[in-house]
Design brief:
mainly alpha, globular, 2 domains, MetI-like_sf
Length: about 300
């Protein structure tokens, strides 16, 4: 009887422990939900406030006019064109190098203290404040390489900013590929490069693409590094067109042109005392938030579609 009573007591203790753990899980889920709702409601409140303030400026003319000293006639044309061109340079300078570096570190680099040191530094660089990259670019691209305060300098600066993000995202996506896929490819005679190109890169493409888009969305909203390298706050002209009607149909003069971007134009309007300019700034802020959310939403959707179509 004593043994049976002891077993019953142990069972009761186990049930009590399970109930306690379930209660703790429930409390943690409620706390997490509250924290999530606070963040979302704060963002929603700020976004609605921006939309209400900038609603009168949501017109086609606002996107097709140059900045002006008159708030009612000021537009975002040079700013959003500048942002687009800077993002092109950022993408070309950071994404191929970042993906290649991530693949090398994960698939080819020997596992020793040196690769561990590189991994630690790459991870730390992903959290470095953006102003540090601006100071680095000012010294390297503007003064040493003499690239000037140009679109090329801005794109390279933001490329340095998102390069660690792309590397980390690539490595995490590659790590998620099952080892069985690699072993199956090796078993049928595939080389290391064929395994990486046709299997590892193929199956991890969704995760890599997500990291790239999130990094580009971060670069789109950066202001501090671009101000550091001398981005203009008022520009009433467009850079030369990258495409021409004469062979070879490409023009690279735009890379050395002066520029401004949407966050800097927004900062310029906010610094003015006239409330009408603040309406322009609110409309610009709402537009930046919408573009950022669309980019992040596109990343999530593409990752879902790619993973759904992949047959493991």
């Amino acid at each position: 009887m004593s043994n049976q009573a002891s077993v019953l007591d142990n069972l009761e203790e186990v049930r009590a422990m399970i109930r306690r753990h379930k209660f703790n899980d429930y409390v943690f889920s409620i706390i997490g939900l509250i924290a999530l709702m606070i963040g979302l409601l704060t963002l929603l409140t700020l976004f609605v406030d921006l939309v209400m303030d900038g609603y009168p400026r949501f017109t086609f003319e606002f996107l097709s006019e140059y900045p002006s000293r008159r708030a009612a006639h000021a537009g975002l044309l040079s700013a959003w064109i500048g942002s687009l061109l800077v993002m092109i340079v950022t993408f070309l300078s950071a994404v191929p190098m970042g993906v290649a570096a991530g693949l090398y570190l994960e698939e080819y680099a020997p596992k020793n203290w040196f690769s561990d040191l590189i991994e630690i530094n790459v991870t730390n660089l992903a959290g470095v404040p953006s102003i540090v990259y601006g100071l680095l670019a000012l010294g390297l691209f503007v003064y040493i390489l003499d690239l000037g305060q140009s679109i090329l300098t801005a794109g390279l600066t933001l490329g340095l900013l998102i390069l660690p993000v792309v590397i980390v995202a690539t490595r995490e996506a590659v790590r998620g590929i099952p080892v069985a896929i690699r072993e199956a490819a090796y078993a049928v005679g595939a080389t290391k490069w064929q395994v990486v190109l046709h299997h590892v890169l193929h199956y991890s493409f969704g995760g890599i693409l997500t990291g790239v888009i999130i990094g580009m969305a971060r670069a789109l909203g950066e202001t501090a590094p671009l101000i550091t390298i001398g981005a203009l706050t008022f520009i009433a002209f467009l850079p030369p067109s990258p495409i021409t009607d004469t062979p070879p149909f490409l023009n690279f003069e735009w890379l050395s042109s002066g520029f401004t971007v949407m966050p800097i134009q927004m900062f310029n309007w906010l610094s003015r005392p006239d409330h009408a300019f603040h309406m322009n700034a609110a409309a610009t802020g709402a537009l930046i938030i919408v573009v950022t959310l669309l980019m992040n939403g596109t990343a999530i959707w593409l990752r879902y579609r790619i993973r759904k179509n992949i047959k493991w």
